[in-house]
Write a structure and sequence with these properties.
The complex is a heterodimer of chains A (252) and B (780).
Chain A: E1 4-17, E2 20-33, E3 37-42, H1 48-55, E4 63-68, E5 71-72, H2 78-88, E6 89-92, H3 104-113, H4 119-132, H5 137-140, H6 149-161, E7 167-171, H7 179-194, E8 198-202, H8 206-209, E9 214-219, E10 222-228, H9 237-250
Parallel strand pairs in A: 3-8, 3-9, 6-7, 7-8
Antiparallel strand pairs in A: 1-2, 1-4, 4-5, 9-10
Helix pairs in contact in A: 3-4, 3-6, 6-7
Chain B: H1 2-14, H2 16-53, E1 59-64, H3 68-80, E2 84-101, E3 104-114, H4 115-119, E4 127-131, E5 138-141, E6 154-159, E7 162-173, E8 184-189, H5 191-200, E9 205-213, H6 219-233, E10 239-243, H7 244-250, H8 253-287, H9 289-297, H10 302-343, H11 353-374, H12 383-387, H13 410-421, H14 423-451, H15 455-461, E11 468-473, H16 477-486, E12 490-495, E13 497-503, E14 508-514, E15 526-529, E16 537-541, H17 542-547, E17 555-560, E18 563-573, E19 582-586, H18 587-590, E20 598-605, H19 611-622, E21 626-631, H20 632-676, H21 678-687, H22 691-728, H23 743-764, H24 773-778
Parallel strand pairs in B: 3-8, 5-7, 14-19, 16-18
Antiparallel strand pairs in B: 1-9, 1-10, 2-3, 2-6, 2-9, 4-7, 5-8, 6-7, 11-20, 11-21, 12-20, 13-14, 13-17, 15-18, 16-19, 17-18
Helix pairs in contact in B: 1-10, 2-8, 2-10, 2-11, 2-20, 8-10, 8-11, 8-14, 8-20, 10-11, 10-20, 13-22, 14-20, 14-22, 14-23, 20-21, 20-23, 22-23
Classes of the chains: A alpha/beta (252), B alpha+beta (780).
Chain lengths: 252, 780
Amino acid sequence: MKEILLSTEKLSKSFSNGGTMQHVLKNIDLQLRKGDFTVIMGASGAGKSTLLYALSGMDTPTLGTITFGTHEISALSQDELAVFRREHCGFVFQQIYLINTMSVMDNVLAAGILVSKDKKALVAKAKELFAAVDISEATQKKFPTQISGGEAQRVGIVRALINSPEILFADEPTGALNSKTGLDVLDTLTKFNEQGQSVVMVTHDMRSARRGNRILYLKDGVILGECDLGTYVHGDSQRHEKLSAFLRDMGW
Amino acid sequence: MRKCFLIARSNLRKSKGQTAAILVLVLLAALMLNLWLMLSTDYKANFERYHDQLNAEHVTLSVDGDSEELQNSLAQMLQRDSRTADYRLDSCMHMTGALPYNGGEMSSWFVFLEKQAALTRSIGQIEIVEEGACSSGVYLPMLYKTDDIAIGEPFEISIGNHKETYTVCGFFNSVMMGSHNCVLTQIVLTADKYAALQAAGYAPQATLCSVRLNDPSDALSYEADMKSAVSEQYPNITMVSNCYQIVSQSRYISQMICSGIVSAMAFFVLLIALVVIGSNIINYIQVNLKNLGALKAVGYTARQLIGALLVQFLGLALLAAIVGVGLSYLVFPTVNGIMIAQTGIPYAMRFLPLPLGITLAVLGGTVALAVVLASRRIRKIEPIVALRSGIQTHNFKRNHVPLETAKAPLQLALALKTTLSGIKHNVTVCITMLVLSLVVVFSGLMTENVIADMEPFLNLIVGETADSCISVQADAEDAFLRAANADSRVEKIYLYSSLNVSHAGGAELMATLCDDFAKVNNQDTVFEGRFPKYDNEIAIAAKYAEENGLAIGDEIEITANGKQEPYLICGFTQISNNLGRDCLFTRAGYERLGTLTSTSYYINLTSGTDIDAFNLAMKEQFKDSVNTTINIDTTISGSASVYVSLMTIIVIAILALSAIIIVFALYLLVRAMLNNKLRDYGIMKALGFTTRQLILQTAASFMPATILSAAVGLTVCACIINPLTALFLRGIGIVKCTFTVPVGFIIIAGICLVLFAFATVCLLSLKIRKIAPRALLAEE
């Protein structure tokens, strides 16, 4: 049995919308395990992203608890959550969100130096990660607006991994990319997962979802079902069929 | 046009905070601009109006004696001069004296007139402003009305060597003899008191010549010619005079100071407002690039988009300007209240269309220019490129402060990145800080040299000060000097007498004589060249020399008592007593022109000596041979306190104003920066930066420009403040200012300025708290 990294108990999230309360997440009990590539799927408005923000400490739940290791993070202040995020989480966003006024290398180091004071080791690690995602030295010196979308998302992954986070959260990481560059990004995430990196990814794309070993299906704020796909193997057709059947069952 | 209004209205709705801040800055600029225009046009012109209203004199001359022969002779002289338009001669009494003023004493040359005689004068009328029921007493110029000097209250006045107590019956306004700044001060007595003073003989009979000229600008030369003609016919006769130019300037020194400072502040605030508006527009274009592209794509022209900005900012500016002008009318009575303590001329505030027109035109014109210049870039926006966000607003030529090699801590390095990539912000910060540096240095200079310690100011304005001044008759001079030198209370005594001479072909000059200038306390009076040493030397006022093209080494002809002698200019002086028409002679030098009938001695007394007691003792010892005794400390504190309180109010006002300016300018910059970096701050928060780190980072990003401009500004201002102040005081004869620049104060003030800016930016950046990373993610 894999070690539990993060768990929720009766996690609920509501938003006030024009005076009426909208209950987006309802009493979710969930456990995320170390080394898993967890994929959260669901239709638009199901609450996938809201669940991701809550789990990653980007947002606070309305009710219920979120426990990371032995620490309850749902009770933390905004600044304490910021420290939690920088020390334990990495983020890959759909819109990439690199800071345009900083070079590629600076985007990564700005996140790294927040946690580690050993700049030399940090630069070495950044270079190693850049090499792993095929970002050249010349590209590292460029600004985000001077590189392609695929390159930018790979830089986003390097930034997310620079602090060796316990969990990497990815919100539709291929959503803004074309087919080819999207595939590259998925390969990169898979590669790091294979090396032991825990990943939680929100997607509504089957091709992306196939990369996960654990699929959660969210509908109307509750987890409707769960599917264990096992370890990803490239070209495994059975995997695709299993996922398709699960999604059909879920009403996808 | 309607489309422009729609866009402008939408822009205004989206930026209420910035709109309010710009409104305040333009409002302040309009307030001060209009205030300055009111002060420099109508307030000064009020003197001329009042002068005409009371049919006041252009030249006033009070001459010893009122015999028929003298008056006939004076009448002939006046009639002969073609410049004379009208004149009248009145019998009066005159004498030097002092009266209580501002907690001290004011000494002047008093001209005593009987009430009915004063009221029936066709030239140099007086206007009784307040009058009590008492039928026997004195009427004083309105300037001297205080809580202590009030109607029905007893009032003590020194007339020459004697003190008289009168009941105050009322107060009046007189244009040419209504203030100690006029040289002559009119005192009106009821018939019984006038007769009593005549009988007592404390003040000699005199003839008051009141002359109106065809051309008032001739007054200065007319006065000099007149005195020269009288002294030619009546050598050594005592006469005291004033003229239109000198009085109009000296009664409006406070107006000159106030209007100078207000004008400087008005233009500085306007400059800051324009820079901030420009910076706001540039930021607006950056933030709204896509929207502007979209508007262009649907058919809006660049002219319409710029027109919308013009409507928005011009509308704001004109609205703020009208409110600012309105406020200036509310502030004006307070400013008038401050200045009237020195001018003594009543001013009835009225609506002035010209200053309003100029204020609106200047603000409207400059704001329109700033908007057009700052929004030029809209013309270059190509809709499709803008919609794709293809226009880069960041210069990617250089990666400032690369984190890989930067030695600075992360927060500082990121702050430096922001600083170096936001050059427009830095320019605005620099201009604001440079203006504030000037204000700080000026405030420090005034606090050190006027408010905290009046001495440097007095040395500059008054020239020479001592403890006591005693004027004695020439025949008692030797005995007086022997007694003074033998008195253990006397530390130093030296001749320091003032009288009038004329520069042949030029103006009348106030001459100060000294037996040995090495003895005078203020050795800075002559700031170029040296004091006169020999009997053929003269030191003259630098302002007068400059106006007449005179240099050290030149020879000039001086006339007095009907004689004319050449003198060599050995130095330049600056004494403001006579607004830059002064000269210095040695005693021997003056005696080439005439003999002294009375001599004034300045005396430094040993520490702890009661000055009044010393003066009284001397008066008792030498009786009628002593003309007057003056406690210089008390006299100076009386008249100088007006300037000290004026300067205190000005310093407090400009410091408060500066604090408001810096807060609003920084508010606009911080808001612009936060709007610009909203996305970046959201990303940083998502990555784990805390609110505190981002606030400090923002505040720190303002610091390089703040510190650098404050350091440069304070240093430069400290170096130029004395010449600048001299330029400012030029109107009263000061050409070189040697005030002590308070280095310690400036350093502390500079640190405070930087800390204040830092704290202000931190407070204004608190909005960062509200930036939620979730909102950033949810916006997609």
